[in-house]
Specification:
There is one protein chain. By secondary structure, the chain is an alpha/beta fold. 57% of the residues lie in helices and 9% in strands. It has three domains: 4-87, SRP54, nucleotide-binding domain (Four Helix Bundle (Hemerythrin (Met), subunit A)); 98-290, 3-Layer(aba) Sandwich (Rossmann fold); 297-440, Orthogonal Bundle (434 Repressor (Amino-terminal Domain)), CATH 1.10.260. It is built from 20 helices and eight strands. It has an eight-stranded mixed sheet, sandwiched between helices. The two termini are 22 Å apart. The chain binds guanosine-5'-triphosphate (GTP) and magnesium ion. The site of guanosine-5'-triphosphate has 22 residues, from helix 5. Magnesium ion (MG) binds next to helix 5.
């Protein structure tokens, strides 16, 4: 989870309120001090931390809770609202036709994020073209081409041309029918004048709707001056914070962005092409505070399904009472594609209180082992693994590099799941509800 340390200490501070029998001034002062400590440790700007906690204290101590709600609920509500307003700079990424230009210093994640964005837009049924306008780094075109291939998006580039604006002009002509065009530009070590001139010229030619500044979250408090300089040059419309997975100090970038008033549109949460989340202040804070985020989970599940027909088939088999190892395999595969188990489970509301008790690595390893075992089975065995006799179990274990006891565990797990599903499907009301859920989830409704 992004900013795991901050989330933990915020939850701990807040749990003092939920656990208290009554909320008085002394407790509120103690809790705001805890909040301050937690935020400062995550590198959130001091001024902002003080402003935030003062506001919380002012509101809780001077305003009366609205009729019908107790002091406890009211305090929690105020804390949540103030944290949200701290990171809220406006609407996140828009899923509509547009031109996007990526800008930023060297190595911040511009090229990677261009690929990630391309995938995100295609998942929302918008056609995308990528333009490689980094004419300074020799391998830049190849890097973007590879990303384009990965996400099945066309890339325009001229590896031997030095005039970035001219490339963009021709790229735009080529992509005139694409709904979204993303332009990747060069990075530099420092804000050199010629880089600024170049991105100005590209912006003149492309007239991009969005000029997105890509910022490595680890830059912390330095984010402010960077954002300012780029803003002066091309008018930054939004910021993408990358490498939020790799830092405990992402609060620095969060707050620096707030002080420059540029909104955060997305956050990068890993090296994988799917590791880009649309930034939504409310969801972001809810997840930090352990509230989970089911709509995000639904979105991730949707993104993970490459073959919707197959998914529908599996759902139908299950609701009609058919559950073989193949269905189980498919479900495990989909889960796997959604990313690390820990990230997936953290989206389930209320889950954060269990997170210390789960051995994620072990569970992930078990899932991988199960998949290897299933890959070594015959079709008939996948239909009904209970036909597997001792000698076959030994062969399967050998073929999959596992042990016989692992094969037995899988069969046992399958029988348990099958029984549970049969029980659920036998319950008419539950069955109806599940079929309804599987058939009518409107995946696009959330955006
Ligand atoms: N862990 C993690 N790594 C990331 C993320 N985004 C980018 N990276 C990594 O950061 C490195 C630099 O990314 P690039 O996309 O090449 O950065 P760039 O801004 O295009 O760099 P230049 O073109 O050289 O200026 C790569 O190794 C990426 O894999 C992220 O969200 N998380
Ligand atoms: Mg690059």
């Amino acid at each position: 989870m992004v900013l795991e340390g901050l989330g933990k200490s915020l939850r701990k501070a807040i749990s003092r309120i939920t656990g208290a029998s009554s909320v008085d001034e002394e407790l509120i002062k103690e809790v705001t001090r805890d909040l301050q400590r937690a935020l400062l440790e995550a590198d959130v700007n001091v001024q902002m931390v003080l402003g935030l906690t003062k506001k919380i204290e002012d509101r809780v101590l001077r305003e009366k809770p609205p009729a019908g709600s107790g002091m406890k609920e009211y305090t929690l509500k105020v804390i949540r609202e103030e944290l949200i307003s701290m990171v809220d700079g406006g609407e996140g990424l828009k899923f509509k036709p547009q031109r996007i230009m990526m800008v930023g210093l060297y190595g911040q994640g511009k090229t990677t994020t261009s690929g990630k964005l391309a995938l995100l837009f295609t998942k929302h049924n918008l056609s995308v073209g990528l333009i490689a306008a980094d004419v300074h780094r020799p391998a830049a075109y190849d890097q973007l081409s590879q990303l384009g291939q990965k996400v099945n998006v066309e890339v325009y580039g001229e590896p031997n041309t030095k005039d970035a604006a001219a490339i963009v002009e021709r790229g735009l002509r080529k992509f005139k029918d694409k709904k979204v065009v993303i332009i990747d530009t060069s990075g530099r070590h420092a804000l050199e004048d010629d880089l600024i001139d170049e991105i100005k010229r590209i912006a003149d030619v492309a007239k991009p709707d969005e000029r997105l500044l890509v910022l490595d979250a680890q830059v912390g408090q330095q984010a402010g001056p960077q954002a300012d300089a780029f803003h002066k040059a091309v008018g930054v419309t939004g910021v993408i914070l990358t490498k939020m997975d790799g830092t405990a100090k992402g609060g620095g970038a969060l707050s620096a962005v707030n002080s420059t008033k540029a909104r955060i549109v997305c956050i990068g949460t890993g090296e994988h092409i799917r590791d880009l989340d649309r930034f939504d202040p409310e969801k972001f804070i809810s997840r930090l505070l352990g509230g989970g985020d089911l709509s995000e989970l639904v979105r991730m599940a949707r993104d993970a399904v490459d073959d919707e027909e197959k998914a529908a088939q599996v759902a139908e088999s299950i609701t009609s009472g058919k559950f073989t190892l193949k269905e189980m395999y498919y479900q495990m595969e989909s889960l796997n594609k959604m990313g690390p188990l820990k990230k997936v489970l953290s989206m389930i509301p209320g889950f954060s209180s269990y997170e210390d008790k789960i051995n994620y690595e072990e569970t992930q390893r078990n899932l991988a082992r199960f998949r290897h075992i299933m890959d070594s089975m015959t079709e008939a065995e996948k239909e009904d693994p209970n036909i597997i006799k001792a000698s076959r179990a030994k062969r399967i274990a050998e073929g999959s590099g596992t042990e016989v006891k692992d094969v037995r565990t899988l069969i046992k797990q399958f029988n348990t799941s099958k029984k549970a599903i049969k029980g659920m499907m036998g319950n008419r009301k539950m069955r109806k509800q599940m079929m309804k859920q599987m058939g009518t989830i409107d995946f696009d409704a959330e955006e």
